[in-house]
Structure formats: structure tokens, C-alpha cells
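ok so for the tutorial part 2 we go from a plain amino acid sequence to predicted C-alpha cells. step 1 is just haveing the sequence, like this:
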Amino acid sequence: MTTSSLVLTVSELTRAIKFQLEKQFPFVAVQGEVSNFKKQASNHLYFTLKDQAAQIQCVMFSSDARSLKTLPKGGDLVEIKGELNVYPPRGNYQVIVRSIQQAGLGKLLLMLEERKKKYLQKGWFDQNKKKPLPKNPQTIGVISSPTGSVISDILQILKRRAHSFHLRLYPVKVQGEGAASQVSSAIDAFNKHKLADVLIIARGGGSMEDLWAFNEECVIESIHRSDIPVITAIGHETDTTLADLVADLRAPTPSAAAELVIEETEKKWIFLKDTQERLDHAQKQIIQRKKEHLETVLQHPYLLYPNRFLREFDQKLDEMCLRLSQTTTEALQKAQTEIQRKNIKLQQLNPTLQIQNGLNRLKLIQSQSSLLALNLIKKEMHNLKQIQEKLDAKLASILQTKKSNFKTLSTHLQAIHPKKLLEKGYTILFDEKENSVIVSTRDLHPKQSVKLLLKDGAAKASVTEIRQGVVCKT
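step 2 — the prediction. this is what the C-alpha cells look like for a chain of 474 residues:
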């Protein structure tokens, strides 16, 4: 180098390089692996694009970043398009990125569409062929990674909302090489040994590449031939795999899958609990009504004082016995009077024969009188016995009639009891001051205070207007 060579400042040299590079590479398309990805508060994206031998800095400003559906992450193989740029403050070059596309994504999408078309033509996605979930599953099978939040979320939901369950976890890889074959083998094992009533296939979200195991044909075919209903909870709600389409039911999250499994069981528990509460309430009401009815019946005078019912018949029996005794006494007195009259007539006859005859006749008369009296007494006793039997029969008949009348009256009283009327929606109107029942509008006058007796209490009101057939109250 000669002394006459031009000496440049750092800024001048950088500007010269910047001009030459940016002029030489106005547009570049580069493929590489993303690393050191950062999103600033300004929404500008900064990352390094590298391969096995070199790396280059990249920046994508917020105006272009808004068009991205998903942000790239470390390890993603992407294809970027933009222009080469030299950043003078740091003296390095970078790519101003205008667009980012996952490398190889088009090939995967094409394969996915071909498989979707294939299984759609076979009718494997037909909703009419989906198996219903069991109403009350006893054993729930889960095919997922044994680590991470998926299995924890499922267990948390089941423990909180299920009353009893048995869970069988079949641990598998959920992404990467060998994941599809493990998931397929797990489904087949559950079916072969009948290990569960329903299956949940679950994992967290991810890119298409992360979820690709669930688009593999071995997994799709295992789900289709499964006799056990299958629920999938793969990726986020916007991610749809072929496994989701062929499964009997798709859940947006693993937690939602657990809720769907126990939904019918939970409804049954709620229904049973509600039914039990309503039965207990109805039983208490019936017992209370029967208790009140029994207390009302027990307060009836015939049950409180049963002797009162028989007092009238006891008195009538005493009167009949008294009349019977009087009749018997009168008959005896009449016989004695006749004997005395015969004795007086006999004493009036002085001849001995007459006396003797009189004595004989007297003896005969006495004998006949005794026999007559005896027969009369027997007859009266027989009549008395018949009267007693008639009285007993009459008393039994009267008692039976009274019992029947009492039963009918009790039934009628129960039917017309005011409380029964109140339960049917009727109201009894009382004068508040006199506490008497009001049955006619003639008994009312304006501003009169009245009381309304209802089924479960009473209310007060004031009469403001009286019309024929209608009472207006406030």
C-alpha cells in the first residue's frame, strides 16, 4: 500500500460496504434453522438464521410481523424472504425479513389433504357411524405422555367431579419418531384386553410437525377399528388432525375430554340427589299432614269422652228395668188383693159345710192363686227376658247405626273442614274488630278493617269499595 492510498473512516467504509451489498443483494430467499428468537415490546422480531457452517442475523419489523399466523420458535426450519441490510452502529449485516414460511410445510399439507380425501371416501369421518360414549364408564383409559400437564389436568377434573372412577394410563410418546406406532399399539392393546370403557387420546398443543404422529395411517386405522369409544384432545381448538376426524368425539382440551366422559354420570348423580331431597321433603309433608289429621280426629268428643255416647242408652235401660219392676209389683199386689177379698167372703158363711167347703175352696183358690201367681211371675219374667233381649238387640242396632253415622260424619267433617277449603284456594273473611265471619256485602262498609284467613296464615285489609258480588280491597 502506498502512502498516497485513500484512508477511510469506519463510517465511510461501512457506508461503502452497505451500498455495495444492498445494491448487489436487493432480494434474498434463505433457508435455515431459527435460534435466539426474541419478540420486543415494539413487536419487532429478532432471531438468528443458521445452518451447520454459518449464521446470519435477521430482523422482522412489526408491520410485516402482523401477517404471521404463528410465530417461529427456536429449532424451526424456515424459509425467509427479504433484503440484505448493513447495520452501521454494530458494523454487521443482517436480513430485513418480509415473510417467513415453514420449510417443507407444503409437502406435509399435501400429504395431509391426500390422506383426508382417502379416509373421507371410505366414510371414516361419517358422524352417523360414531360410537356413543358410555353412560356410566367404570374404567377410563388415557393414552398420553406420563409427564407434563395433560394427565394432571385430566386427573384434576375427574377427582373433582367424578364420584368413583378407575383410570388406566398407557404412557406413550406424543411426538417425534416412534410416537405414531406407540399410540397405535396402545389403542390396540386396550381393545384386545378390554381394559377400558372409553379411551382418551391427549397431548398439548404444537405445530403441524409436532402433531404429525396423529395424522399417521397406523393411528387412524387403530382408532377406526377400536370397539371402545375414542375421545381425542390433541392440540388446540384450531389444530385439527386426522385422528380428531375419525375419533368418536373430539374435545378442545384434555380437561374438556375428562368432563365429557363423566358428563352423563354427573347428571345422574345430580338427578338422584335432587330426587332424594324432593322425596324427603314430600315424606315430611305427608307425615305432618297425617299427624295434624290424627290430632284433629283425636280431639273429637266421641273419642275424648266415649262414655258420653253410652249415657243416654244407660238411662233408657234403667227406665225399662224400673217399668218392669213396677209391672211385676202391681201384678203381685192385684193377686194379694183378690185373695183377701175371697177370705172376707169365706168368713161371712157360718155353716160348717160351707166353712169346710169354703176352706176347701179356699185351699183350692190359694193353690190356684199360688199357681197363677207363679205362672204370672214366670210369664212376666219371660216377658222381661224378651224385653231385655229386644233392648240388647235395639241397643246393638243403635250402636251400629251411631258408629256408621259417626264414621260418615267424620268423613264429611274432614271433607268440609275449613283448612281443606283454604288449601283449595278459598279465603275466609273476618271482621277485624268483632272477629266474626263476613258472608255478605251487606255486612261490609267502606274503610272497614277486615282479616283474610289463608292456607298458611292471615292478612289484613281495608275495604275501599263495595260492589254487587265483588269486594275491592287494598
